[in-house]
């Protein structure tokens, strides 16, 4: 039993990332009808927002300490980050340590800007083109974005630690009445899951309880009629694109302590997220989220020692296998709406 | 000749001439000159031109004709490579069985994948093929290690059985051959400052590519090809006429899978080594790039696309800052630095950036690829010649990228 709970918990953090990316993909597909292969790149951009912020925080100047000497006897050079001067050393240290959560604030305007310019500058011209063209142009864009990041940050993963207060692990074993040490789960993954849940809840609440969200949902159902009512639906859809980019970016920001970001992390996630979207049902937001968590948990179950020894290699292919089975038996996906891209 | 009409015959003869004289054409700059680094006439690169040409021609039979965008074609190339290396290990160093077996295996594998994937279309088809390819990639890396040798890659060993080869090994690995002619052999021809390399392996690949190209012309012009075009244009209407599009599409899928297998087989025939990264989805993406860049649905497009991408990959990535400084040495110092600084991200390791930008521009402005670009240029010039422009433009629209 404790092993099962552990695997579910393990699956949740990856599942959260899948769900967040798939949610954004579905938002874009449901509103604009565009298949966005650059969504993984947006996730990666978010992760590099966190890297950038922590780099900005640690920009420092050099002073020579007249008292202390280094091991060669020369005067010791001391690096002082500028934020120490501005906010005092205590606040400065805290800011550096908490740079990943702070990057959420930093990344929101950036991702919105990226989303808006991407939609207005490129995607707009591809509404009427076939899906194959949309896939190809966004695929090209993804290559360009990731090469730009590679140029500035290099090809190696950049470790970006979580705040020290959250780096430890929680022992759920005791909490749930099992042996101590049987379920050990890092705090940060828990944070990630809660964060993802809040974002997903926020997006759903936004769509359900605001007038803006209502108009967007109406537009998703019947774009033309909403347009005929005198509502500028294109503008709202553009904003939704920016929102989707923002969701992907935030997913990336918070993912950095779990996996050190590198320039091709987006592509790795993109392939899986597409599978998630298809399993959940193209155009269904609930389906995307459910399928994200489901596949994340399934993947972590498949990598249990017992199962791997029974079916070697299953942990590598389980997601694709599930996708193939679902696509063939239930083409609409788990929760797909009738008539949305069935053929 | 050979059942081709005069236009196709010209095209075929052009390709024939290009491939046969490639060692001359790709080495236009004398040895040791400033521009010698732009020469592409060395065997390794020339072989890659034609091998990826075959791959792209095959991909084009599926994507160009039926419009089904497969994102998993590299899996067939990978299967072909593994089958080819195993033939070299078990049977003989003669490349003929290796190539034949790799085509057969890729064909079988693509029949399975195609049968399942083609039950869906559009983006679902892309995702299904992608899922299959990623699955084969993951399996080749992990569970199938006894067959694929995992991360190290499958390669020849001294104690391989090679039951048809009788000559005792003298302690070194034998070379792949075609009935005794070794693939790596060749001869060099020095004409003044120019040095041309003729390589048997290249010519074998080139001849096979010509055959593949010929077959693809025949497919394009056959009733079967017409049927595939009908699948792309309007499947529903095709069904209304009482035809079932599925067998035709599946046949196209298998044919293009076999082309990929042929490319994989040739790859190991030239260099007997097969690794799982050949099956990764980025490799599938590459052949998509080649086909689109050259012009999907055209005969010559994929070959051009493969050539352009492989040329850039090899030549662009070799240019470094020193070379740039040499080029701009005529400029004043500050401007020289500025120019080098501006171009730096696009060369060397950054050539993928150039590729991505090029690809995006092609998809946005020239959906027909290089071939459409050529046609537009020709139209521009013929319009200047005084013929009626409206007629020319509309007739070109009626036959997009033919």
Secondary structure blueprint with pairings:
The complex is a heterodimer of chains A (343) and B (402).
Chain A: H1 2-32, H2 39-57, E1 60-69, E2 75-81, H3 82-87, H4 89-97, H5 99-121, H6 131-153, E3 169-171, H7 172-175, E4 184-186, H8 187-209, H9 211-221, H10 223-228, H11 233-255, H12 265-280, H13 285-302, H14 305-310, H15 314-329
Antiparallel strand pairs in A: 1-2, 3-4
Helix pairs in contact in A: 1-8, 1-11, 1-12, 1-13, 2-5, 2-6, 2-11, 2-12, 5-11, 8-9, 8-11, 9-11, 12-13, 12-15, 13-15
Chain B: H1 6-20, H2 22-25, H3 43-66, H4 74-90, H5 95-117, H6 122-141, H7 145-148, E1 154-155, E2 177-178, E3 181-182, E4 186-191, E5 194-199, H8 200-221, H9 223-233, H10 235-240, H11 245-270, E6 273-274, H12 281-294, H13 301-315, H14 321-327, H15 333-343, H16 351-365, H17 369-384, H18 389-398
Helix pairs in contact in B: 1-8, 3-8, 3-11, 3-12, 3-13, 4-5, 4-11, 5-6, 5-11, 8-9, 8-11, 9-11, 12-13, 17-18
Quick structural gist:
Chain A is built from 15 helices and 4 strands. By secondary structure, chain A is mainly alpha-helical. Chain A has one domain (2-60, 101-329): ABC transporter involved in vitamin B12 uptake, BtuC (Orthogonal Bundle), CATH 1.10.3470.
């Amino acid at each position: 039993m404790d092993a099962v709970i552990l695997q579910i918990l393990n699956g949740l953090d990856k599942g959260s990332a899948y769900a967040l990316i798939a949610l954004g993909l579905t938002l874009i597909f449901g509103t604009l009808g565009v298949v966005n292969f650059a969504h993984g790149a947006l996730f990666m951009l978010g992760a590099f927002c966190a890297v950038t912020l922590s780099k900005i925080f640690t920009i420092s100047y050099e002073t020579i300490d007249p008292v202390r000497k280094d091991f060669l006897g020369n005067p010791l050079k001391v690096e002082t980050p500028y934020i120490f001067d501005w906010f005092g050393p205590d606040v400065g240290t805290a800011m550096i340590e908490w740079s990943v959560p702070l990057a959420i604030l930093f990344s929101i305007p950036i991702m919105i800007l990226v989303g808006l310019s991407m939609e207005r500058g490129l995607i707009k011209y591809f509404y009427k083109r076939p899906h194959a063209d949309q896939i190809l142009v966004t695929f090209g864009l993804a290559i360009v974005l990731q090469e730009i990041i590679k140029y500035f940050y290099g090809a190696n993963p950049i470790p970006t630690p979580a705040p020290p207060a959250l780096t430890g692990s929680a022992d759920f074993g005791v909490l749930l009445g099992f042996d101590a040490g049987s379920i050990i789960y890092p705090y940060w993954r828990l944070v990630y899951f809660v964060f993802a849940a809040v974002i997903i809840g926020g997006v759903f609440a936004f769509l359900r309880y605001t007038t803006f969200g209502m108009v967007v949902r109406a537009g998703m159902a019947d774009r033309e009629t909403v347009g005929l009512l005198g509502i500028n639906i294109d503008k709202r859809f553009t904003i939704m694109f920016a929102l989707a980019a923002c969701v992907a970016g935030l997913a990336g920001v918070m993912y950095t302590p779990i996996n050190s970001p590198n320039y091709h992390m987006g592509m790795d996630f993109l392939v899986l997220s597409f599978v998630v979207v298809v399993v959940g049902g193209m155009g269904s937001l609930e389906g995307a989220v459910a399928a994200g968590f489901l596949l994340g948990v399934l993947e972590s179950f498949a990598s249990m020692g017992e199962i791997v020894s029974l079916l070697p290699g299953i942990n590598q292919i389980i997601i694709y296998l599930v996708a193939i089975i679902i696509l063939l038996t239930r083409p609409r996906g788990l929760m797909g709406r009738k008539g949305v891209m069935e053929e | 000749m050979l059942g081709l009409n005069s236009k196709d015959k010209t095209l075929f003869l052009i390709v024939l001439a290009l491939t046969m004289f490639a060692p001359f054409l790709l080495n236009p700059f004398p040895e040791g000159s400033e521009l010698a680094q732009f020469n592409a006439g060395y065997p390794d690169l020339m072989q890659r031109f034609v091998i990826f040409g075959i791959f792209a021609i095959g991909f084009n039979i599926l994507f160009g004709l039926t419009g089904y965008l497969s994102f998993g074609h590299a899996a067939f190339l990978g299967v072909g490579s593994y089958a080819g290396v195993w033939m070299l290990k078990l049977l003989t160093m003669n490349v003929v069985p290796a190539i034949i077996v790799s085509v057969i295996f890729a064909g079988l594998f693509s029949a399975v994948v195609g049968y399942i994937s083609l039950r869906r279309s559009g983006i679902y088809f892309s995702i299904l093929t992608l899922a299959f390819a990623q699955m084969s990639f993951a399996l080749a890396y992990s569970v199938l290690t006894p067959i694929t040798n995992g991360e190290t890659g499958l390669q020849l060993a001294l104690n391989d059985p090679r039951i048809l080869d009788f000559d005792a090994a003298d302690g070194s690995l034998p070379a792949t051959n075609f009935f005794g002619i070794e693939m790596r052999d060749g001869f060099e021809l020095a004409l003044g400052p120019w040095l041309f390399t003729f390589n048997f392996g290249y010519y074998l690949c080139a001849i096979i590519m010509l055959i593949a190209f010929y077959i693809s012309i025949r497919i394009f012009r056959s009733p079967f090809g017409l049927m595939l075009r009908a699948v792309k244009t309007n499947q529903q209407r095709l069904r209304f006429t009482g035809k079932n599009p599925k067998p035709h599409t599946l046949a196209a899928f298998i044919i293009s899978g076999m082309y990929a297998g042929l490319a994989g087989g040739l790859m190991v025939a030239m260099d007997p080594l097969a690794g799982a990264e050949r099956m990764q989805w980025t490799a599938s993406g590459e052949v998509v790039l080649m086909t689109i860049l050259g012009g999907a649905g055209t005969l010559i497009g994929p070959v051009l696309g493969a050539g352009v991408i492989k040329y850039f990959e090899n030549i662009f990535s070799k240019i470094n800052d020193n070379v740039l400084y040499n080029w701009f040495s005529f400029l004043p110092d500050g401007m020289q630095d500025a120019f080098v600084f501006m171009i730096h991200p696009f060369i060397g390791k950054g050539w993928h950036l150039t590729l991505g930008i090029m690809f995006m521009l092609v998809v946005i402005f020239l959906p027909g690829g290089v071939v459409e670009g050529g046609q537009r240029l020709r139209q521009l010039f013929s319009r200047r010649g005084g013929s009626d422009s409206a007629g020319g433009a509309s007739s070109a629209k009626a036959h997009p990228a033919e």
